[in-house]
Structures are given as structure tokens and as C-alpha cells.
From TrEMBL, chain B:
<keyword id="KW-1133">Transmembrane helix</keyword>
<feature type="transmembrane region" description="Helical">
    <location>
        <begin position="77"/>
        <end position="100"/>
    </location>
</feature>
<dbReference type="Pfam" id="PF12730">
    <property type="entry name" value="ABC2_membrane_4"/>
</dbReference>
<protein>
    <submittedName>
        <fullName>ABC transporter permease</fullName>
    </submittedName>
</protein>
<feature type="transmembrane region" description="Helical">
    <location>
        <begin position="133"/>
        <end position="159"/>
    </location>
</feature>
<feature type="transmembrane region" description="Helical">
    <location>
        <begin position="255"/>
        <end position="277"/>
    </location>
</feature>
<keyword id="KW-0472">Membrane</keyword>
<feature type="transmembrane region" description="Helical">
    <location>
        <begin position="179"/>
        <end position="199"/>
    </location>
</feature>
<keyword id="KW-0812">Transmembrane</keyword>
<feature type="transmembrane region" description="Helical">
    <location>
        <begin position="206"/>
        <end position="224"/>
    </location>
</feature>
<feature type="transmembrane region" description="Helical">
    <location>
        <begin position="37"/>
        <end position="57"/>
    </location>
</feature>
């Protein structure tokens, strides 16, 4: 699995460059050599030794590959090691052997690594055979190995009478084996080897530094960063400070549409206390405009000022704007009340500024307020979203199609709410493609089609005078019509008269003359009157303004 | 932050640095079912593995299963490491991809993103709040797994030392320290997935797309990592380091693999995170 790149400048020899002494415990023990040396202890199988040790390493050191037979060995064990011990070389130990008269005694010495759970490993399956000619103390050099004893493990010296790999005396015999007092096991080590750790590749240190540099470059060079650096200076325009909204030369072309502008060169302004209707057919660019007012999308050209502050993404002045644009946006798993609560907390403003009670009155959700929003109908979501826009009673309220999905009763209430809201000196912008909607609630109008401004001004100015009449006539020649216009204009109590543009007929503005009297005069002049009615003000204006462009 | 002046012309009490506080974002995310499901899976997985081992018995070495899994029933720490080993490659990436990939994209899909931004929460602030909360949730998910596994393992197999089939054993104390270290390492490794998922989350309005993209990256990286012919190029795959922690499960731990994994993960997280900020700051919000 892991190859240690252990290395040293010079050969440490089998005796090592340093030593650790480990005391072994165990009294004098009898070791029996069975007749014929059978059965033998197993430390390795001749011819298979290498393969077995490989297998032992792979399958697990605790596999009982090495086996000593009871009564045929003496064992001496150390206390658990305090720290890890890297053995490099041949350990040595003094052993006192009493051959019991049957010289020579043959013994096999081996050093086990004993784990705290009792399982033992014979490093590399190596064993040292000894032949002791006469009773006495002998120096034993154990097999040379490079082996790592873990902390907490014990060392166990075993002297066995038999071993599968060797033949031993056929005569049965019993030896006594003991260790001389105060004579520890000496283990050679090589400190130089232990320090040879694999160096880290250079990229390990380099990579995060390079990545940090790339990250910094990415953050500092983006479009947003450029805009931020550039945008600080002209952020405030004191000229507009009193105006809730000023839009100047606003243009936006969405990514991917190269020729068609969503909004093109749009300019208008809104005064305090106005209810401005943003009117236009679907696709006129109303919602795109509102998104730009809220800093959600970036105009390609032009500026938006709210209370004199230039609008960019996250401009602080947006905290004075409440918005409902293109449908509700709530966390579906939370209740309506929790949604409003968390939304207000997300603004970071004091809870007492929220005016939740007013907002909830507008939402009018009753007990549904405690249900998850995902169970709401579209109208309920809509009302909750408008309530969210009104949280904190913002000075400028932007509502995009606020009456979509409401029933007639709620539409009427919503109109009243909007009118009341603006009466307090606050400003409301309402977008709609419904004429009746804006006509009944708005004081001012901005009419758009295909991203362009068509008209802007007070509702009355755009829709024409209230007492203007449209007199529908049958087809008339231009000369005849001019003659009629001249005659009608000469009548007392008629302020003005002009040929109607959208259909054959006359537009007459009265100044004192009653409608029946006008009708009598028209009939007297042989004008083929088909119908007389009020000029269908806004609808006509709207169709006139938007129709020829469509 | 406390010395920040009130922005001129803002509503009273409005301070950009106070918008979308962490605990508000945490509450918004915590109440979602997906969050509790992720935490539930992380808690349930060790129990499922324990049940599987109880039913099927300890895996034998015959089928080539890794030695860590063979030793799973030896002790509590053994079990915890075995569970971590099973979860390392793919499973731990899923909650991270979910928390980061979903965080902005789900707001976009609910349309609530535009109301937060118009509140106004500054865009960098919004991303930072969301990133921090996702980071916290991911940390809990990644760290709760080994913790529960240790508890389940100790209850089932007892408190004991870590048995390593190759290199003896480690004492229970050392092994627990290593377990904590490995858990933290795995969390750091997942930062590359987190960064990528966050970037994806700013790119798309479909939460599934962002999460799927990040999970797809993990799968692709895992496949490439198996092509040994790529050699050392594999060191630079985001998931390459996810098993490197096995090297520290020995008496003399080797930290090289861990250092490489941390380096790679931090580097990728920085670059992907910067891409996310760069893109989100200038993005047109049309959701």
C-alpha cells in the first residue's frame, strides 16, 4: 500500500547506528525436544517461505502462520512499548541454556511482534537456529530485519526446540532455558532512516497560491467590479433628490437577441404622490423596465434614479422601494406568516418598522396565513406578495399587474388600497395591460409598446377631454366633411371640432351646447349621423397609440 | 462593521451588512425537507451498514473487498473507518453538492431570489451568507456520519483498538484522533465539489441542474481516476484525494497524500468560488 522511501547516507550494518534495550520477563522454562523432532514448530515452510510471508502480509499479520507447540518452547515477553520502535539490523540477547546432559542442544530463536489483542507476527518469518554444545550462557544474534514495532505492542522472544525448516536431534531431551538477570534484548536502530520522509511535491504548496491569485483576478476583473469602480462617482444626482423616480434613456437588449430591444431609449419621471400607470400590451417591456428599476438587470444604456440615487444591483436606496414584479416569490415549505417574517428579517431592518399588521390586512388571508405557501391559490399568493411589497410602508411601491388572478371584489379592494396608499404622499407605479385598471386608479400614465415610450403625462391629457363626443357618420367625401366641420365649428356652444381619425366621423367638444341640440343641428346640416357617444377615451387612445406600431 | 455609516438615502435602520443574517438563512434552509432527509440519511447509513453486516456476516477476504471493510466488525473505530471508506468516494459528495448546488438556484426557481436582491441584499453578501450556511450544513452532514458510525460501532462491536490487517493495530485513543482528523480531511476534500456546485448554482435557475452538474463532476472525476494510464495527471482530479486518508491508518502515518488532497481541494474551491462571485455579481436576474 505505502512504500516508505527510507534511505540513509551509509550502510548502518547489522548492528545498527544506535540501540534500544528492551527488558524481557520470564523465568527459567523447560523446553522439550520430542523424539525424532516431530511434530515441529512452524515458522516458515521451506521453499514456500517467501510466498508465505507475502501472503501473511496481504491477508493479515494475525494469520497464525507461525506456530509453536506447547511444551516445546520458552517465551520471554516485554512490557508494552512506550513508543514505536523501528528495528533495523540483527537484535542480540544473552540466553542461559541448561542442556540437561544431552548435548548438543538445538534451539530456534525468533522475535515476535505481539499486538495488544494478543495476535502475534513473526517479522518476515525469520528464525535463527542455535546449536549449544554445553550448558552455559550464549550470545544469540536474532535474524536481521527491518521492522516497525508499533507503540503499545510487545516483543516476545521464543526459543523453540523444533522447527519445520530444520532437522533437530532425534533423541528426546529436555532443556532449561532462562535469561540472565539484568541482561536486556538489544535492538539496533538507525535514526537516519527514520527521518527520511518522502518530501511533498512542490505543487502542493504552489497550487493554492496560484489558485488564490487566479481567484483574486477573477473577482477583481469581472463586469460587476468594473462597474463598481466606475459607478461610485455619479451615484447621487441632487437635482433628482426629490423625485421618487427618474428614468433617462434606458435601453436593454437581452443576451442573444441582437436586433430586438426589450426596452429602447425610455425616459420618464414620477413625482411624489402620483399613481403612475405603466401601460402597454404584453411584451411592451413593462416588466423589463421594472426589473431595471429594482437593479435586477443591468441596462445597456441609460440611468435610473430613485430619490436621486443611481440604481445598481443592491443600491441601498432600494430599501425605500417595495416591489411586486412578475408573480410572487415565496419559500413554498414555509407558511405565509413565516415567509413575511423571514423576508423582513432578511432586510436586516428593525422589526417595529415592518408594519406587519397593515400588510396582513391587505393580504386578507385569514387562517391560511399559517399554512405552507405551496397550498395557496394563485390569488392568495398574489395578495401575500403585494403585502410583502408593502412591508415597511415603502415610499415608492412598484406593482406589476397587481390584479392578475384576483376576483372582481378583490380587484375593487386592491384599487382602493392603491389609491389610499398614494394619498399618504407615497408614490405607486402600477403596470398593466388592462385599460380599465389604470384608468380607474392612476393619476399619470406612461404608455409603452415594443420597448418604446409612446406617451407620458396625466391621464386626462393622454385620454383627451371628458366632454368630447364622437359622432359616427356614414362614409363622407373629404370636401363634404370639411364643409360640415366648418359649419359645426361656427355653432354657438361648440369649443372645437375635428374629423375623427379612427373612423369616419367628427370629434366634437361642447362648451355649453346640450347633446340633443347638437344632434338637431347636425341633422339640420344633413350630416348622416349613425351614432353619438362619448369618445371611448383611454381605449381609443391606447389603441391609437399602440395599434399602428404593432 | 459597527462603524459602518448609514448609507445616504436608505430607509432608516437599513445597513447592507445586516441583510440576510446567517441565522435567517439557516432558518430558511433548515425548515426544508431536503435538509432533514440528508441529515437522516447520514444518521441512518451506519445503522444500515451495521444491519447488513449483522445479516450477511463479516465479509471474507475472498471477494477482494478492501481490508478496512473486512475488519469492520473488529471494533467501534474499525466500523467507523469502514463506513467512512464506503462513503468517501461518492456518498459524502452528495450532501455537499446538494447544499451548495441548490442554495441559489432554488431561490431562483421560487422567484424569491429577486425579492431578496431587491430588499436589497447586496449580491456578494447574499452569496456569502448562503455559502456560509451551506458550508455549515455540509460540515454537519460530513462529520455526523463518522460520529454516528463510531457510536453505532462501539455499541455493536465494543470500544477497542483499531485493527489494521497490514500494520498491526492502533490504540483506541490514537485511532479516534485519526478518525476526527480523517473526517475533517474529507470535509476539506469536498470543498472542491462545494465550489463547483456553488458556481453551477449561480449559472442556472434549475436546482436539479446545479446539483446534478456537481454530482456529475464527482462521477466523471471518479471514472477518470480509475484510468491509471493518466498517471500523475490523476493527482489533479477533484476526487483523487478522497481515499488518500487510508495512508494515515498505520503506526507511522504518511501525510503526503493528505497534503496533496488538501492543496488540490483548496485550490479548486478558490477558483470555483471566485467564478461564482464573478458571475453572480453581474448576472441579470430574470427568474
Amino acid at each position: 500500500m505505502v512504500q516508505f522511501g527510507a534511505n540513509a547516507d551509509r550502510y548502518p550494518t547489522l548492528a545498527g547506528t544506535a540501540h534500544r534495550a528492551v527488558t524481557l520477563d520470564g523465568g527459567s522454562q523447560a523446553v522439550a525436544n520430542p523424539a525424532g523432532g516431530m511434530p515441529p514448530a512452524i515458522s516458515s515452510v521451506p521453499g514456500l517461505g517467501g510466498a508465505l510471508s507475502q501472503l501473511g502480509g496481504l491477508v493479515g499479520g494475525s494469520l497464525p502462520l507461525s506456530q509453536d507447540l506447547p511444551g516445546q518452547y520458552a517465551a520471554f515477553q516485554s512490557a508494552p512499548l512506550d513508543g514505536a520502535l523501528q528495528l533495523t539490523g540483527a537484535p542480540s540477547v544473552k540466553v542461559t541454556v541448561d542442556t540437561g546432559g544431552s548435548a548438543p542442544a538445538v534451539l530456534f530463536a525468533k522475535l515476535y511482534d505481539v499486538a495488544p489483542d494478543g495476535s502475534s507476527v513473526l517479522p518476515h518469518q525469520l528464525v535463527t537456529p542455535l546449536r549449544v554444545a554445553a550448558s552455559g550462557t550464549v550470545d544469540v544474534q536474532l535474524p536481521a530485519v527491518d521492522y516497525d514495532f508499533a507503540a503499545g505492542h510487545r516483543l516476545r522472544l521464543v526459543l523453540a526446540a523444533t522447527d519445520l525448516g530444520y532437522s533437530s536431534p532425534a533423541q528426546p531431551a529436555t532443556y532449561r532455558v532462562s535469561l540472565p538477570a539484568d541482561d536486556p534484548l538489544t535492538l539496533p536502530t538507525d535514526l537516519a532512516l527514520r527521518d527520511a520522509a518522502t518530501p511533498l511535491p512542490a505543487w502542493v504548496w504552489l497550487l493554492p497560491v496560484v489558485a488564490a491569485a487566479i481567484a483574486a483576478a477573477l473577482v477583481l476583473t469581472g463586469v460587476g467590479a468594473r462597474r463598481r469602480r466606475r459607478g461610485h462617482a455619479p451615484a447621487v444626482d441632487p437635482e433628482f433628490a426629490k423625485l421618487p423616480l427618474v428614468v433617462e434613456g434606458l435601453s436593454k437588449r437581452y443576451h442573444g437577441s441582437t436586433d430586438r430591444y426589450a426596452v429602447k431609449d425610455l425616459s420618464f419621471r414620477v413625482e411624489r404622490g402620483q399613481v403612475l400607470g405603466l401601460l402597454g400590451p404584453n411584451g411592451a417591456g413593462k416588466t423589463t423596465t421594472m426589473r431595471m428599476l429594482m437593479g435586477l438587470i443591468r441596462p445597456d444604456a441609460g440611468r435610473v434614479h430613485v430619490f436621486g440615487q443611481s440604481i445598481a444591483a443592491g443600491a441601498p436606496v432600494l430599501s425605500r422601494v417595495g416591489a411586486f414584479v412578475e408573480g410572487a416569490g415565496f419559500l413554498p415549505h414555509l407558511s405565509g406568516r413565516a415567509n413575511l417574517d423571514l423576508y423582513w428579517r432578511a432586510t436586516g431592518r428593525p422589526a417595529e418598522d415592518a408594519h406587519v399588521a397593515e400588510a396582513l390586512e391587505i393580504a386578507d388571508l385569514g387562517e391560511a396565513l399559517e399554512r405552507p405557501v405551496r397550498t395557496y391559490s394563485q390569488g392568495m399568493r398574489q395578495r401575500l406578495a403585494i403585502a410583502q411589497a408593502m412591508l415597511g410602508l415603502p415610499e415608492l411601491l412598484i406593482l406589476d399587474e397587481p390584479t392578475n388572478g384576483l376576483d372582481p371584489q378583490q380587484i375593487r379592494e386592491m384599487r382602493a388600497v392603491i389609491t389610499r396608499y398614494a394619498a399618504g404622499g407615497r408614490t405607486v407605479i402600477v403596470s398593466s395591460h388592462l385599460l380599465s385598471e389604470v384608468e380607474q386608479t392612476c393619476t399619470h400614465l406612461v404608455v409603452m409598446t415594443q420597448g418604446r415610450l409612446l406617451a407620458a403625462g396625466p391621464v386626462a391629457e393622454i385620454t383627451g377631454n371628458d366632454d368630447e363626443l364622437l359622432v359616427g357618420t356614414g362614409a363622407m367625401g373629404a370636401d363634404a366633411l370639411d364643409a360640415v366641420v366648418a359649419k359645426v365649428a361656427a355653432l354657438d356652444g361648440v369649443a372645437s371640432v375635428a374629423p375623427a381619425t379612427e373612423e369616419p366621423g367628427l370629434l366634437v367638444q361642447l362648451d355649453g351646447l346640450a347633446v340633443p341640440e347638437l344632434l338637431a343641428e347636425l341633422l339640420r346640416l344633413d350630416v348622416p349621423v349613425e351614432r353619438v357617444g362619448p369618445h371611448r377615451r383611454l381605449e381609443d387612445a391606447f389603441l391609437t397609440l399602440t395599434g399602428d406600431r404593432a | 462593521m459597527s462603524t459602518e455609516t448609514v448609507p445616504a438615502q436608505a430607509a432608516s435602520g437599513f445597513r447592507p451588512s445586516r441583510t440576510l443574517p446567517l441565522r435567517v438563512e439557516a432558518r430558511r434552509q433548515l425548515s426544508r425537507r431536503r435538509t432533514s432527509i440528508v441529515f437522516g440519511v447520514m444518521v441512518a447509513l451506519p445503522v444500515i451498514v451495521w444491519a447488513a453486516l449483522a445479516v450477511g456476516g463479516t465479509p471474507s477476504g475472498r471477494d477482494g473487498s478492501p481490508s478496512l471493510i473486512q475488519a469492520a466488525t473488529s471494533s467501534g473505530v474499525n466500523f467507523a473507518f469502514a463506513v467512512l471508506f464506503m462513503a468517501s468516494g461518492f456518498l459524502l459528495s452528495v450532501p455537499v453538492a446538494l447544499f451548495f448546488g441548490d442554495t441559489v438556484a432554488s431561490e431562483a426557481s421560487w422567484s424569491s431570489l429577486r425579492y431578496l436582491l431587491a430588499a436589497p441584499v447586496p449580491r456578494a453578501r447574499l452569496l456569502l451568507s448562503k455559502l456560509t450556511v451551506a458550508l455549515g450544513f455540509s460540515a454537519v452532514a460530513v462529520l455526523v456520519l463518522p460520529l454516528v458510525a463510531l457510536g453505532v460501532g462501539t455499541a455493536a462491536y465494543g470500544w477497542g483498538e483499531l485493527h489494521l490487517t497490514l500494520a498491526g493495530s492502533l490504540t483506541a485513543g490514537t485511532a479516534t484522533e485519526r478518525l476526527a482528523l480523517v473526517a475533517v480531511y474529507l470535509f476539506v476534500c469536498e470543498l472542491s465539489v462545494a465550489g463547483f456546485a456553488l458556481w453551477m448554482s449561480t449559472l442556472t435557475d434549475a436546482p436539479l441542474g446545479a446539483v446534478g452538474g456537481a454530482v456529475g463532476l464527482v462521477i466523471l472525476s471518479g471514472i477518470l481516476d480509475n484510468i491509471t494510464a493518466l498517471g500523475s495527471l490523476r493527482d489533479f482530479l477533484p476526487t483523487h484525494g478522497m481515499y488518500a486518508w487510508v495512508d494515515v491508518l498505520q503506526p507511522n502515518p504518511d501525510w503526503t497524500g493528505l497534503a496533496e488532497g488538501v492543496s488540490m481541494a483548496v485550490a479548486l474551491a478558490l477558483v470555483f468560488g471566485a467564478l461564482a462571485f464573478r458571475h453572480f455579481r453581474a448576472k441579470d436576474i430574470v427568474s
